[in-house]
Design goal:
The chain contains 14 helices and 26 strands. It is an alpha/beta fold. A hairpin with a 2-residue loop joins strand 22 (about 450) and strand 23 (about 455). The longest helix is centred in the N-terminal third of the chain and has 19 residues, at about 50-70.
Amino acid sequence: MEKSWFKNYPASCAREIDVNTYQSMIEVFDNAINLYGDKIAFQSFGKELSYAEIKVLSDKFGAYLQNELGVKKGDRIAVMCPNTFVFAISMWAIIRIGAVQVSINPLYSPRELEHQLKDADVENIIIYSASTPILAEIIENSPIKKVIVAGIDDLVNLGLPNAPVDPRLKNTISFVDALTKGEQREISIPSLSHSDLIFLQYTGGTTGLSKGAMLSHSNIIANVLQFSETAKDYLVKGKETVITAIPMYHIFALTVNTLANFSVGSKNVLIADPRDMASFVKTWQATKATFFTGVNTLFNGLVHTPGFEDIDFSSLKLTVGGGAPVQEAVSKKWEAATGQRIHEGYGLSETSPMVTMNHSTPNGYISGIGFPVPSTDISIRDDDNNIVSDGESGELCVKGPQVMQGYWRNQEATDECMTADGYFKTGDVALLDEFGTFHIVDRKKDMILVSGFNVFPNEIENAVADMEGLLESACIGVKNEKSGECPKLFVVKTDDSITQEDVIKHCRGRLAAYKIPREVVFIDELPKSTVGKLLRRELRNY
């Protein structure tokens, strides 16, 4: 069926991908090793590992998991590490023995960690040494039997200080020792099908306990091919250098940076701590990066970091933004600094994640999340599941081979998020414009109802994003006797002289009266997830 967005597809981009190109992600790995064996796969703290070395190391670790720990096809294994060689090696070992990776944020609270370990029934965990106190708090209440501890200096060998292992943990082994044990054994590669699980990717849990999105080999193969097809005009196989600052445990970096770029022979420069912006900028200065992925807060932080404007960006070909909407003001600052606009994309854990990607079109560049990647359909629907007219807002619903199998052991939640005709309901409000480009309006749950009018926090945050003296902002709805709810804006400022009245005055020329914040609160820092998403819910405690 002809879709209005097909006119925006680059001439080189196919409308469909063939998921049967690969039987499993093991074939994707083998193909990359055969084609790019002598090329650099990952760089960390200036040290490098080739594709061939990644195979050798994942052989050793996979053999350890199978022969020493008895891991079988389908078993869940947790990886709780920052962006390091250990994450990449562990991931490929887990994939190649047919196990299922449960990626966990190293900064999780004990409660969050306990929930995921129990829910996924995880018996083995690879964990960053600095995170072991979190595990020690709850290990007695978890199914964990073996703890494999990774240090920041593992395989880098620069003398970086590894955090001590919490003494309350007993059945531990270092990652390096596990590799030594595995070297004496043989890895056994199982036969896998499209339907076999590869990841349990837990959602953020913004409305309660997080749920595990069941992603299959077919889901990830689809998204790897969809990315490669969509970005083919920018990528030269075996020649690209990507900087990975978004955490690899997040679905955006996991699929796009770590897997899709591996499949096309890219060199992946890992940033273990992107919050250390000064160090990050130094790494970039020494890197001829051709591809960068980020989120709005990361872009904003970089353009405000001294030295960033002095980087030679002549090699940079593609910048992709996702994870949260990219503000126009931030995009303009990025383009002014780098010479490259940010190509915004859209996706979720439940969609592996890519759903859309923005490109220049015959009508020029139009802000927004672009158009669906190949083999993907989007339907915008109202609360009664009726398809709305183009230009009208509704819930973005998506169908495609990258959509998850469902939520792990939670059929009720799975049923709630799917329409009768097989579309996944994202919870995001969006619209399709006359040019065939999609735009995210906001999260349904974040919408503010002011005297019967819908107000979306994104619109208010965008209105102040270009105000001089402000770094960033976040808006929530609070109860109001007259209007039911009203907007309350939290702001981080760089100019101490700015007042609440200044901010409200700035909004008056840009927003309808009912959208103007009734209260402006200045704070030192906005609460964010480790990937940089604004955590608006935490602002309700202020």
